[in-house]
Amino acid sequence: MIKGVIFDLDGVLVSTDELHYEAWAKLARELNINNYTKEDNKAQKGISRMESLEIVLKKGNIAYTEKEKEALADRKNNYYVEMLDSLNDSAVLKDVKEALAMLKNRGIKIGVGSASKNTPLILEKTGLEPSIDAVSCGIDVTKSKPDPEVFLVAAKKLCLPPNECLVVEDSYAGVVAAKAAGMKSLAVGPERKLLEADYDSETLLSETDWDLMLKISYNF
Ligand code: G6P
Ligand code: MG
What domains are defined for the chain? Predict the structure, then answer.
């Protein structure tokens, strides 16, 4: 049986994906990289800040030292955190609050598994923090998705074995990470059909779907 659901943050619980894109686009423009697009941003979903930076820099033809790269990643993060200043509960995506309440009523533990080091700040600003039993994020891990570490840490914090956890994701790296962690996965978001998750759904609110997913028990 599934006893815990681990949600990705950006693009699953909150609409911060757009802000990540805007902050990277601003940095790209300053570096005279004018061909960074939303398509490139798709490949940045779920992966770490430094790996995301590499995707932007690949669009230009300048080589940077590690120290310079760290400064560029910090610069992007400063833009992003500035944008988060006005973040509030209106950034919580459709059906999320209702789905979290429904899971809580069923005695399901709720975790967050995200590469973002800004996870605690975002959960606090959007008012989601009290609904979450355990947070595992970029601060807790050394390897980012598709490595399973972030989800394994979340399961540990929830005191559940991996095979009793279901991951909700909107990124390919995240679905691969869930599988590598030995967890079932539910894909949401515009790319959900392409992510090769165990399930995909347009809405987080279908009680029948949750019943089906939560009842799954499987052997390793
Ligand atoms: C999430 C987002 C990525 C972002 C990463 C790191 O996984 O989907 O686009 O690069 O978090 O976020 P951070 O807030 O630590 O820069
Ligand atoms: Mg995401």
Answer: 4-15+90-214 (3.40.50.1000), 16-86 (1.10.150.240)
